[in-house]
């Protein structure tokens, strides 16, 4: 009996303690004007729920609080924005104090001159320097021929082998960038660079624990080794009388180049170029192969487009700019792949000052926002399952309010303008937009034709490549790489998936044991 009493007392004590802790944490962040939402546990916030439940965490919070809510995830108080109009507003207003909010650990590993670490005029300058390396003229005259040559060699002799597409597309994204940057693809320097680069990538995705043996520490060492490799390449180039026609060559042409960068800036720009295009290009290519395998009628249409390009060419003739521009269906396949797989869940911003988030709205955005909320409200009313959830939620709300945990104004989902404190993160979560049936009818089907009918690419809600002043500068380069990869893959080969492939879609899209396919000649 005594043991039983002790267990009950400990149990009740734990409940009381947990409730007090949660309540204290909510009170800590209680401030008039903040969006509704919960902050979870001190320090950890709601990170575990977010990582465990993934997109469902976001859906549940939206059902409760609307598409603009507060939380505490990945170590920071964060406001999650899932509304397309608000998302655009946030991305368009960097100058009002909504700057990139990537974790400090990532910025440290990528370098202090990395494009995501700089703002204002420095960002404009670094972005200008980067854009000058991948302008449409350079893409056409220098980069497309390099990509074409690279893809031919990378995709040779895959027939009659089991190929891990995930591994091959990662190598492809990495070596293709290195060839464009410094003309190296299979030398020992390229291998050494790759070895260090893979460690650097792991570090940017790990917890910032600077202890021996951690991915974070290894990434710092890898960064230092990469800095040494690039510095060595620059020294060799300066000592040589030959000017190479690649990105490094352009950056070192001091007299002709409008953008004069220091060695440190050049090195960080090169790391930015390799890093930004690595996972995005490789994962989109891998997922395109997956969806094409699962949708033979799409593959047939894609193959038709590429065989028509090859029809008037000799077997080893490269694709031209005009060929690339004619790949309309391929472009649609790439967009549909990025949408359905959601390669990028969203982007992070942080506030440099306390700010009111409805201040800059035009009335149309505001009306769209409230109309969407009303529609969601109507949907909640229609769905009995959600209705019963709402009843439970109302009971919970009554309990919470009567205990004073959350102030009344936080629970009402009425939009009245929110105040975001200085230093808070804003997670511009674009994933849900990809599955919005109003924007993409039958959103879970893989239907590239939807991109051909209307010009969806120029719609304001199209944020697959970000938006505003940070719109992806590598968009055309990335599409060109994936298109060239698909060109040679579908015209040379057929493929069947092996058993045992497993894909996870959150927090990153990846094939946990690789995406193994058996390849045969066409
Ligand atoms: C399918 C391929 C790609 C996708 C889906 C993609 C997506 C994105 C997105 C969503 C952003 C916005 C980040 C933000 O707002 O914080 C971005 C920015 C960026 N991307 Fe890409 N990207 C792709 C390929 C590339 C490639 C090949 C490069 C190489 C040049 C590149 C370089 C960059 C850079 C440097 C930024 C930062 C721009 C800035 O801060 O001004 N991306 N990308």
UniProtKB/TrEMBL annotation:
Record GO terms (molecular function): heme binding; iron ion binding; monooxygenase activity; oxidoreductase activity, acting on paired donors, with incorporation or reduction of molecular oxygen
Cofactor: heme
Positions that bind heme: 472
Localization in the cell: Membrane
Keyword terms, alphabetized: Heme, Iron, Membrane, Metal-binding, Monooxygenase, Oxidoreductase, Transmembrane, Transmembrane helix
Keyword Cell inner membrane: no
Biological-process GO terms, alphabetical: brassinosteroid biosynthetic process; brassinosteroid homeostasis; sterol metabolic process
A Pfam family the protein falls into: p450
Highest taxon in the source lineage: Eukaryota
Topology versus the membrane: Single-pass membrane protein
Cellular component per GO, a single term: membrane
Residue stretches spanning the membrane: 6-24
Family named by the database record: Belongs to the cytochrome P450 family.
PANTHER family: CYTOCHROME P450 26, CYTOCHROME P450 85A1
UniProt name for this protein: Cytochrome P450 85A
């Amino acid at each position: 009996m005594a043991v039983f009493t002790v267990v009950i007392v400990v149990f009740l004590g734990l409940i009381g303690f947990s409730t007090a802790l949660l309540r204290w944490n909510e009170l800590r962040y209680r401030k008039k004007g903040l969006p509704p939402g919960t902050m979870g546990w001190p320090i950890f916030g709601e990170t575990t729920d977010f990582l465990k439940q993934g997109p469902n965490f976001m859906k549940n919070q939206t059902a409760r609080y609307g598409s603009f809510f507060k939380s505490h995830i990945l170590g920071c108080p964060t406001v999650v924005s899932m509304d397309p109009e608000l998302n655009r507003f946030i991305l368009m207003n960097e100058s009002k104090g909504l700057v990139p909010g990537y974790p400090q650990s990532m910025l440290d590993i990528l370098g202090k001159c990395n494009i995501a670490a700089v703002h204002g005029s420095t960002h404009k300058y670094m972005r200008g320097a980067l854009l000058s390396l991948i302008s449409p003229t350079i893409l056409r005259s220098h980069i497309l021929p390099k990509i074409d040559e690279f893809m031919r060699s990378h995709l040779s002799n895959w027939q009659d082998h089991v190929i891990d597409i995930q591994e091959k597309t990662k190598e492809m994204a990495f070596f293709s960038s290195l060839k464009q940057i410094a003309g190296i693809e299979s030398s020992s320097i390229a291998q050494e660079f790759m070895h260090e680069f893979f460690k650097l990538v792991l570090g940017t995705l790990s917890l910032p624990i600077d202890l021996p043996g951690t991915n974070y520490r290894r990434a710092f060492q890898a960064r230092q080794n990469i800095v040494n490799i690039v510095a060595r390449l620059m020294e060799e180039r300066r000592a040589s009388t030959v000017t190479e026609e690649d990105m490094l060559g352009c950056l070192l042409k001091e007299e002709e180049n409008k953008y004069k960068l220091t060695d440190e800036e050049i090195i960080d720009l090169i790391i930015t170029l390799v890093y930004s295009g690595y996972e995005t290009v490789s994962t989109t290519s891998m997922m395109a192969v997956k969806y094409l395998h699962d949708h033979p009628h799409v593959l047939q249409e894609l193959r038709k487009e590429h065989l028509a390009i090859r029809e008037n060419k000799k077997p080893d003739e490269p694709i031209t700019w005009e060929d690339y521009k004619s790949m309309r269906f391929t472009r649609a396949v790439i967009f549909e792949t990025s949408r359905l797989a959601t390669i990028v869940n969203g982007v992070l911003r942080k506030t440099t000052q306390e700010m009111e988030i409805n201040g800059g709205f035009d009335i149309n955005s505001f009306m769209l926002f409230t109309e969407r909320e009303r529609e969601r409200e109507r949907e909640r009313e229609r769905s009995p399952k959600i209705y019963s959830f709402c009843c439970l939620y109302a009971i919970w709300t009554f309990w919470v309010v009567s205990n004073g945990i959350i102030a009344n104004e936080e629970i009402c989902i009425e939009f009245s303008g929110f105040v975001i404190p200085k230093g808070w993160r804003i997670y511009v979560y674009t994933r849900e937009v990809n599955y919005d049936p109003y924007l993409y009818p039958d959103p879970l089907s893989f239907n590239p034709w939807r991109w051909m009918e209307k010009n969806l690419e120029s719609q304001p809600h199209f944020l697959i490549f970000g938006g505003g002043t940070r719109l992806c500068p590598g968009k055309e380069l990335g599409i060109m790489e994936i298109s060239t990869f698909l060109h040679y893959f579908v015209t040379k080969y057929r493929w069947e998936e092996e058993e045992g492939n497993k894909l996870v879609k959150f927090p990153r899209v990846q094939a946990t044991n690789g995406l193994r396919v058996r390849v045969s000649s066409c």
